[in-house]
Model the fold of this input.
Amino acid sequence: MTRERLMRELIQTRPFDPPEAEAFFNLLKTEEMLSTRLAETLKPFGLTPSQYNALRIVNGSGVEGIPSLEIGERLITRVPDVTRMIDRLVEKGLVERRRSDRDRRVVRVFITPAGKQLVESAVKPLRKFQKQWIGVLSDDDQAELNRLLYKLRYRD
Amino acid sequence: MTRERLMRELIQTRPFDPPEAEAFFNLLKTEEMLSTRLAETLKPFGLTPSQYNALRIVNGSGVEGIPSLEIGERLITRVPDVTRMIDRLVEKGLVERRRSDRDRRVVRVFITPAGKQLVESAVKPLRKFQKQWIGVLSDDDQAELNRLLYKLRYRD
DNA sequence: ACACAATAGTTGTTATAACGTATATTATGG
DNA sequence: CCATAATATACGTTATAACAACTATTGTGT
Done:
């Protein structure tokens, strides 16, 4: 029984109190497992998950580039220090930064050829990662998981 | 429809590719939301979630204390630097450290009265947090979420 | 008994999380 | 037009994530 397994992992002898704790701990542990696996997948590319996510966003913006602020808004998980993350991508030669002529507060970020190449080279391993780890669930189970997670988030 | 809502959040126009990405992103975003809320709940106690988790573990070990290594093994989410986390709890006067006489490699960690008190004062707010956020799901939905998360983790 | 392997904790280090402050620029309202 | 508020990015700082190397201690095999 899987609850016993989680309790064994946590070396917990008493029932979850409140019962909601079980789902919460499960979420924490499952996310951690997947995030760790993701980081391992991206490590050979010299990127953290957030860096790759940002690079993908910049790449998708095409020749127009994208403002820093918008990168931050579009990242899957929050990055409180977008500036320095972009610093590090600039150092790696994967993006370039240019102040906008129209609004001097704004810095637009552009993908470099090296950045574009790196994004593209990681697409397949990333796809494989997702199929491998999430694919253990059937389509129906995935749909159900999505429904539950949306409910948790949007509280409809 | 909630998929459109996630896509709007991610400013994504094309379908999830692979479809597994949707569940993966949902997991990331849901965990982040809950972790952020948890951190906010514990902030008034001057503790991060991992610190509180560690304190709970030490508190549960009673007068015998618990070895550092075991704390690390029992934490819900991995802490790669248990030593320094315990340093910080020691600084806060919440735990004490003593080298074991039986095996000089081992440091046992003991709760202090202040630590015990802090653990206990946070129990109710934490319980409330869990009921409030996870409780949006029915018991059946929670059971289903657990089933899916166990499946993802244990891949049975 | 002794050499080496394994173990537990610590330390050094870099990257990132996270908050708050600083600076420059633009928007707004009178 | 001008003062102030709002906005975007950058910077200062502390805590933590994370890895690897180090030190001391114990376990193991010969």
Notes: Chain B touches chain A through 55 residues (CB under 8 Å).
